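Narrative summary of target 7.
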Amino acid sequence: MMFRRQLERVAVYCASNPGRDPAFSRIAAELGAELARRGIELVYGGSDAGLMRIVASSVLANGGRVTGVHPEGHPIEDPQRNLTQLYVVKSMAERKAKMLELADAWLALPGGFGTLDEFFDAICLLQLGIHRKPCGLLNIHGYYDHLLAFLNHAEFSGLLKPEHRRLINASASPAELIDLLATRAAPALLPAEKHDRAAV
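Modeled conformation, tokenized:
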């Protein structure tokens, strides 16, 4: 029998600019529509810029719900208006923690330093067993091919355990990636004495 997780909220990390490839914007909008169609609430960084704005606007335009988590006084991003809910937090670290707390799973669209920081912070906590929320990369036009190849190299080099490499789901299709997040069994937690942070 296939394991299936109920996804009520999915956190999405992505760029605050649209990038050069038009497919990034097109598939960000497709992801938003797919989340809304399935009744899955979007949790994102609250920004009114780039791919972040596109995915959030698409969810709202298709009748879905969007929760933004925006750090006060952000030097680059302004918060998007008309969201279902907006949390204003004090720092980027608090934003990451709040997004992960709210969501049942998370995924990354194409992005730069901020997207990768958020994604790998969350996956390190998953690796440690601090939470059991699945993750994925929306690999539009092979954007994450080199990153995935590096992770395969890290596994081959003995610096990344195979079971940890398998924590990352990847697909070029929003619908397929959401299905993977919903159907992949959660990893086993580490013994409680291995860490002192509560699971979220």
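Residues 189-200 have pLDDT under 50 and may be disordered.
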